[in-house]
Amino acid sequence: xxxxxxxxxxxxxxxxxxxxxxxxxxxxxxxxxxxxxxxxxxxxxxxxxxxxxxxxxxxxxxxxxxxxxxxxxxxxxxxxxxxxxxxxxxxxxxxxxxxxxxxxxxxxxxxxxxxxxxxxxxxxxxxxxxxxxxxxxxxxxxxxxxxxxxxxxxxxxx
Length: 158
Hints:
Number of strands: 0
Order of helices and strands: HHHHHHH
Distance between the termini: 43 Å
Structural class: mainly alpha
Helix content: 55-70%
């Protein structure tokens, strides 16, 4: 039995289903062990191993990158300073702290810089859904062989 995202297997033969699941996982492990880790994968690993990493990443994407209002993003960046992951290099942590403290006073300067610098850490996880970039990004991913699962309810219409 081969597993597929478009076929829901029957539970009548649980042993066959269990074997198919084990075979699939073994294939994933084999494939991943043969792949070279990218710098993005290493950053993600460091981020997820840090106790505050996931909260920081989600808070940064939702609170600093997403808001259109720079004052809102500045307030959120200031609050995120307490969650700065320790895995980040010291110079980046120091600049993030400085930027977070200056953001409420100078949001029009700090927020665009913070977005540009820190977006690189999550760029491989988040797709820009603006109409000017989404189509191009999806086409590139499909050409690269990536199978996409898009929930259109989350796609913002502009």
